[in-house]
Design a protein that fits this description.
It is a single chain. The chain is of the alpha/beta class. The chain is about 35% helix and about 20% strand. The strands form 2 sheets. It has an 8-stranded mixed β-sheet, sandwiched between helices. α5 packs across α6.
Length: about 290
Protein backbone atom coordinates (compact mmCIF):
# COMPACT_ATOMS: atom_id res chain seq x y z
CA UNK A 1 0.00 0.00 0.00
CA UNK A 2 1.19 3.53 -0.73
CA UNK A 3 1.88 6.45 1.59
CA UNK A 4 0.28 9.67 0.35
CA UNK A 5 1.51 13.24 0.49
CA UNK A 6 -0.67 16.07 1.82
CA UNK A 7 -1.29 17.35 -1.71
CA UNK A 8 -2.31 13.90 -2.90
CA UNK A 9 -4.69 13.49 0.03
CA UNK A 10 -6.30 16.82 -0.79
CA UNK A 11 -6.63 15.74 -4.41
CA UNK A 12 -8.16 12.43 -3.46
CA UNK A 13 -10.71 13.66 -0.98
CA UNK A 14 -11.62 17.09 -2.29
CA UNK A 15 -11.81 16.74 -6.05
CA UNK A 16 -14.27 14.89 -5.42
CA UNK A 17 -13.53 11.58 -3.64
CA UNK A 18 -13.90 8.93 -6.35
CA UNK A 19 -13.49 5.39 -5.01
CA UNK A 20 -11.59 4.19 -8.10
CA UNK A 21 -9.07 7.03 -7.75
CA UNK A 22 -8.61 6.41 -4.04
CA UNK A 23 -8.03 2.72 -4.74
CA UNK A 24 -5.50 3.39 -7.48
CA UNK A 25 -3.50 5.74 -5.27
CA UNK A 26 -3.59 3.51 -2.21
CA UNK A 27 -3.16 0.02 -3.54
CA UNK A 28 -1.58 -0.55 -6.94
CA UNK A 29 2.15 -0.66 -7.69
CA UNK A 30 2.51 -2.87 -10.77
CA UNK A 31 6.18 -3.71 -11.40
CA UNK A 32 7.84 -3.91 -14.78
CA UNK A 33 6.80 -7.26 -16.26
CA UNK A 34 9.16 -10.11 -15.33
CA UNK A 35 7.84 -12.57 -17.90
CA UNK A 36 6.25 -12.92 -21.32
CA UNK A 37 4.25 -15.54 -23.20
CA UNK A 38 5.32 -16.96 -26.54
CA UNK A 39 2.78 -18.50 -28.92
CA UNK A 40 3.39 -22.15 -29.74
CA UNK A 41 2.57 -23.99 -33.02
CA UNK A 42 -0.11 -26.04 -31.25
CA UNK A 43 -2.03 -22.88 -30.36
CA UNK A 44 -0.88 -22.73 -26.75
CA UNK A 45 1.62 -20.49 -25.00
CA UNK A 46 4.95 -21.03 -23.28
CA UNK A 47 6.25 -19.06 -20.31
CA UNK A 48 9.50 -17.11 -20.48
CA UNK A 49 10.95 -15.42 -17.40
CA UNK A 50 13.35 -12.49 -17.12
CA UNK A 51 16.16 -12.33 -14.57
CA UNK A 52 14.01 -10.11 -12.39
CA UNK A 53 11.64 -13.01 -11.75
CA UNK A 54 14.39 -14.68 -9.68
CA UNK A 55 13.39 -18.20 -10.76
CA UNK A 56 14.68 -20.75 -8.23
CA UNK A 57 14.02 -24.09 -9.90
CA UNK A 58 15.10 -26.03 -13.01
CA UNK A 59 13.92 -25.84 -16.60
CA UNK A 60 11.86 -28.98 -16.01
CA UNK A 61 9.66 -27.26 -13.43
CA UNK A 62 9.36 -24.21 -15.68
CA UNK A 63 8.12 -26.33 -18.59
CA UNK A 64 5.48 -27.81 -16.30
CA UNK A 65 3.79 -24.44 -15.78
CA UNK A 66 0.79 -23.93 -18.06
CA UNK A 67 -0.01 -20.38 -19.16
CA UNK A 68 -2.72 -18.76 -21.22
CA UNK A 69 -4.89 -15.64 -21.39
CA UNK A 70 -8.56 -15.04 -20.79
CA UNK A 71 -10.89 -12.08 -21.21
CA UNK A 72 -12.80 -10.37 -18.41
CA UNK A 73 -16.30 -8.87 -18.49
CA UNK A 74 -14.60 -5.46 -18.50
CA UNK A 75 -12.95 -6.29 -21.83
CA UNK A 76 -9.40 -6.72 -20.53
CA UNK A 77 -7.20 -9.71 -21.30
CA UNK A 78 -5.47 -11.17 -18.26
CA UNK A 79 -2.53 -13.54 -17.99
CA UNK A 80 -3.23 -16.84 -16.22
CA UNK A 81 -0.89 -19.44 -14.77
CA UNK A 82 -1.53 -23.03 -13.67
CA UNK A 83 1.18 -24.74 -11.62
CA UNK A 84 0.50 -28.46 -11.54
CA UNK A 85 2.30 -29.97 -8.60
CA UNK A 86 0.35 -33.22 -8.30
CA UNK A 87 -1.77 -35.59 -10.39
CA UNK A 88 -3.83 -36.20 -7.27
CA UNK A 89 -3.89 -32.85 -5.43
CA UNK A 90 -5.57 -32.34 -2.09
CA UNK A 91 -7.02 -29.06 -3.42
CA UNK A 92 -6.40 -26.43 -6.07
CA UNK A 93 -5.57 -22.96 -4.76
CA UNK A 94 -6.82 -19.86 -6.54
CA UNK A 95 -4.10 -17.45 -5.44
CA UNK A 96 -4.70 -13.67 -5.62
CA UNK A 97 -1.31 -12.03 -5.14
CA UNK A 98 -0.12 -8.77 -3.58
CA UNK A 99 0.15 -5.31 -5.07
CA UNK A 100 3.81 -5.01 -6.10
CA UNK A 101 4.52 -8.36 -7.80
CA UNK A 102 3.50 -10.18 -10.97
CA UNK A 103 3.19 -13.81 -12.02
CA UNK A 104 6.84 -14.09 -12.97
CA UNK A 105 7.98 -13.07 -9.51
CA UNK A 106 5.44 -15.39 -7.85
CA UNK A 107 6.14 -18.47 -9.99
CA UNK A 108 8.91 -19.94 -7.81
CA UNK A 109 6.78 -19.43 -4.70
CA UNK A 110 3.87 -21.26 -6.35
CA UNK A 111 6.06 -24.25 -7.19
CA UNK A 112 7.45 -24.44 -3.66
CA UNK A 113 4.16 -23.88 -1.85
CA UNK A 114 2.16 -26.23 -4.04
CA UNK A 115 4.65 -29.07 -3.76
CA UNK A 116 4.77 -28.76 0.03
CA UNK A 117 0.97 -28.61 0.37
CA UNK A 118 0.21 -31.18 -2.36
CA UNK A 119 -1.93 -28.55 -4.07
CA UNK A 120 -2.06 -27.30 -7.63
CA UNK A 121 -2.05 -23.51 -7.87
CA UNK A 122 -3.90 -21.26 -10.28
CA UNK A 123 -3.16 -17.56 -10.39
CA UNK A 124 -3.44 -14.55 -12.66
CA UNK A 125 -2.23 -11.01 -13.08
CA UNK A 126 -4.62 -8.14 -12.43
CA UNK A 127 -5.40 -5.73 -15.26
CA UNK A 128 -2.34 -3.55 -15.79
CA UNK A 129 0.04 -6.09 -14.22
CA UNK A 130 2.53 -8.24 -16.11
CA UNK A 131 1.19 -8.74 -19.62
CA UNK A 132 -2.46 -8.22 -18.65
CA UNK A 133 -4.10 -5.36 -20.51
CA UNK A 134 -6.04 -2.43 -19.05
CA UNK A 135 -5.26 -0.58 -15.87
CA UNK A 136 -5.46 -1.62 -12.24
CA UNK A 137 -8.62 -0.57 -10.42
CA UNK A 138 -10.92 -1.94 -7.76
CA UNK A 139 -13.62 -2.85 -10.27
CA UNK A 140 -11.11 -4.50 -12.57
CA UNK A 141 -9.65 -6.55 -9.71
CA UNK A 142 -13.10 -8.02 -9.02
CA UNK A 143 -13.75 -8.64 -12.72
CA UNK A 144 -10.28 -10.18 -13.14
CA UNK A 145 -10.84 -12.55 -10.21
CA UNK A 146 -14.27 -13.56 -11.49
CA UNK A 147 -12.83 -14.34 -14.93
CA UNK A 148 -10.00 -16.37 -13.40
CA UNK A 149 -12.45 -18.31 -11.22
CA UNK A 150 -14.65 -19.12 -14.21
CA UNK A 151 -11.90 -20.24 -16.58
CA UNK A 152 -10.12 -22.23 -13.86
CA UNK A 153 -13.24 -24.20 -13.00
CA UNK A 154 -14.16 -24.82 -16.63
CA UNK A 155 -10.69 -25.70 -17.90
CA UNK A 156 -9.76 -28.01 -15.03
CA UNK A 157 -13.26 -29.29 -14.18
CA UNK A 158 -13.18 -28.12 -10.58
CA UNK A 159 -16.02 -27.91 -8.10
CA UNK A 160 -16.04 -25.06 -5.53
CA UNK A 161 -15.51 -27.67 -2.81
CA UNK A 162 -12.17 -28.56 -4.45
CA UNK A 163 -10.84 -25.00 -4.33
CA UNK A 164 -9.07 -22.97 -1.66
CA UNK A 165 -9.06 -19.20 -2.12
CA UNK A 166 -5.74 -17.76 -0.98
CA UNK A 167 -5.43 -13.97 -0.90
CA UNK A 168 -2.31 -12.08 0.09
CA UNK A 169 -2.32 -8.37 1.02
CA UNK A 170 -4.40 -6.52 -1.60
CA UNK A 171 -5.27 -9.96 -2.96
CA UNK A 172 -7.36 -10.62 0.14
CA UNK A 173 -9.97 -8.14 -1.09
CA UNK A 174 -10.40 -10.19 -4.27
CA UNK A 175 -10.59 -13.48 -2.38
CA UNK A 176 -13.16 -12.11 0.07
CA UNK A 177 -15.30 -10.62 -2.67
CA UNK A 178 -15.39 -13.96 -4.51
CA UNK A 179 -16.03 -15.88 -1.28
CA UNK A 180 -19.19 -13.84 -0.64
CA UNK A 181 -20.67 -15.47 -3.76
CA UNK A 182 -19.26 -19.00 -3.65
CA UNK A 183 -18.76 -21.43 -0.81
CA UNK A 184 -15.36 -23.05 -1.28
CA UNK A 185 -13.31 -25.56 0.68
CA UNK A 186 -11.55 -22.81 2.59
CA UNK A 187 -10.24 -19.25 2.47
CA UNK A 188 -6.76 -18.11 3.52
CA UNK A 189 -6.34 -14.39 4.27
CA UNK A 190 -2.64 -13.55 4.40
CA UNK A 191 -2.06 -10.02 5.77
CA UNK A 192 -5.62 -8.80 5.07
CA UNK A 193 -6.83 -5.22 5.20
CA UNK A 194 -10.15 -4.00 6.59
CA UNK A 195 -10.52 -1.29 3.92
CA UNK A 196 -8.41 1.19 2.01
CA UNK A 197 -9.33 4.15 4.20
CA UNK A 198 -8.48 2.23 7.36
CA UNK A 199 -4.98 1.59 6.01
CA UNK A 200 -4.41 5.24 5.02
CA UNK A 201 -6.13 6.62 8.13
CA UNK A 202 -5.85 4.14 11.04
CA UNK A 203 -8.35 6.03 13.19
CA UNK A 204 -11.18 5.48 10.68
CA UNK A 205 -14.06 3.82 12.54
CA UNK A 206 -16.66 3.40 9.79
CA UNK A 207 -16.86 2.54 6.10
CA UNK A 208 -17.42 5.66 4.02
CA UNK A 209 -19.13 5.61 0.62
CA UNK A 210 -15.79 6.34 -1.08
CA UNK A 211 -13.82 3.79 0.95
CA UNK A 212 -12.24 1.26 -1.45
CA UNK A 213 -11.97 -2.44 -0.66
CA UNK A 214 -14.51 -2.61 2.21
CA UNK A 215 -13.53 -6.15 3.20
CA UNK A 216 -14.46 -5.62 6.86
CA UNK A 217 -18.11 -5.42 5.79
CA UNK A 218 -17.96 -8.20 3.19
CA UNK A 219 -16.28 -10.76 5.47
CA UNK A 220 -19.50 -11.24 7.43
CA UNK A 221 -21.05 -12.77 4.29
CA UNK A 222 -18.35 -15.39 3.80
CA UNK A 223 -19.71 -18.86 4.62
CA UNK A 224 -16.48 -20.81 4.02
CA UNK A 225 -13.94 -21.66 6.70
CA UNK A 226 -11.36 -18.87 7.05
CA UNK A 227 -7.74 -18.94 8.20
CA UNK A 228 -6.22 -15.51 8.94
CA UNK A 229 -2.43 -15.09 8.87
CA UNK A 230 -0.70 -11.85 9.88
CA UNK A 231 2.67 -10.66 11.09
CA UNK A 232 2.60 -8.80 14.40
CA UNK A 233 5.11 -6.21 13.13
CA UNK A 234 3.50 -5.58 9.75
CA UNK A 235 4.67 -2.13 8.65
CA UNK A 236 2.28 -1.86 5.67
CA UNK A 237 -1.05 -3.24 6.89
CA UNK A 238 -1.15 -3.02 10.64
CA UNK A 239 -1.66 -6.18 12.68
CA UNK A 240 -4.95 -4.73 13.95
CA UNK A 241 -6.45 -5.37 10.50
CA UNK A 242 -5.81 -9.09 10.80
CA UNK A 243 -7.30 -9.15 14.28
CA UNK A 244 -10.43 -7.33 13.14
CA UNK A 245 -10.94 -9.58 10.11
CA UNK A 246 -10.56 -12.66 12.29
CA UNK A 247 -13.11 -11.34 14.78
CA UNK A 248 -15.67 -10.45 12.08
CA UNK A 249 -15.44 -13.63 9.98
CA UNK A 250 -18.33 -15.99 10.85
CA UNK A 251 -16.43 -19.28 10.39
CA UNK A 252 -12.78 -19.27 11.42
CA UNK A 253 -10.11 -21.61 12.68
CA UNK A 254 -7.32 -20.56 15.02
CA UNK A 255 -5.37 -17.75 13.33
CA UNK A 256 -1.62 -17.62 12.80
CA UNK A 257 -0.10 -14.52 14.36
CA UNK A 258 3.57 -14.58 13.39
CA UNK A 259 5.47 -12.85 16.15
CA UNK A 260 8.01 -10.37 14.81
CA UNK A 261 7.06 -10.84 11.15
CA UNK A 262 6.48 -7.88 8.85
CA UNK A 263 4.44 -7.58 5.66
CA UNK A 264 6.69 -9.47 3.25
CA UNK A 265 8.38 -12.17 5.30
CA UNK A 266 5.62 -14.16 7.00
CA UNK A 267 6.22 -17.18 4.76
CA UNK A 268 9.87 -17.35 5.87
CA UNK A 269 8.86 -18.40 9.39
CA UNK A 270 8.64 -22.13 10.09
CA UNK A 271 5.18 -22.00 11.61
CA UNK A 272 3.74 -20.65 8.34
CA UNK A 273 3.96 -23.95 6.46
CA UNK A 274 2.99 -25.97 9.55
CA UNK A 275 -0.17 -23.93 10.11
CA UNK A 276 -1.15 -23.95 6.47
CA UNK A 277 -0.63 -27.69 6.22
CA UNK A 278 -2.83 -28.29 9.27
CA UNK A 279 -5.57 -26.09 7.79
CA UNK A 280 -5.52 -27.98 4.50
CA UNK A 281 -5.14 -31.52 5.81
CA UNK A 282 -7.13 -31.43 9.05
CA UNK A 283 -9.42 -28.44 9.48
CA UNK A 284 -11.21 -27.86 6.20
CA UNK A 285 -14.60 -29.50 6.31
CA UNK A 286 -14.37 -30.25 10.02
CA UNK A 287 -14.74 -26.79 11.60
Amino acid sequence: MNGLSLSELCYLFCCPPLPSRVAAKLAFLPPEATYYYEDEPDGGCSLHLTERSEWQYTHRELEGIEVFKTRTRKGNTIACMYVKNSDNPTYTMLFTHGNAVDLGQMSSFFVGLGSRMNCNIFSFDYSGYGISTGRPSEKNVYADTEAAWTVMRQKYNLKPSEVILYGQSIGTVAAIDLATRFEVAGVVLHSPLMSGMRVAFPDTQRTWCFDPFPSIDKITRVTSTVLVIHGTEDEVIDFSHGLAMYERAPHTVDPLWVEGAGHNDVELYGQYLDRLRRFINQEIGSS
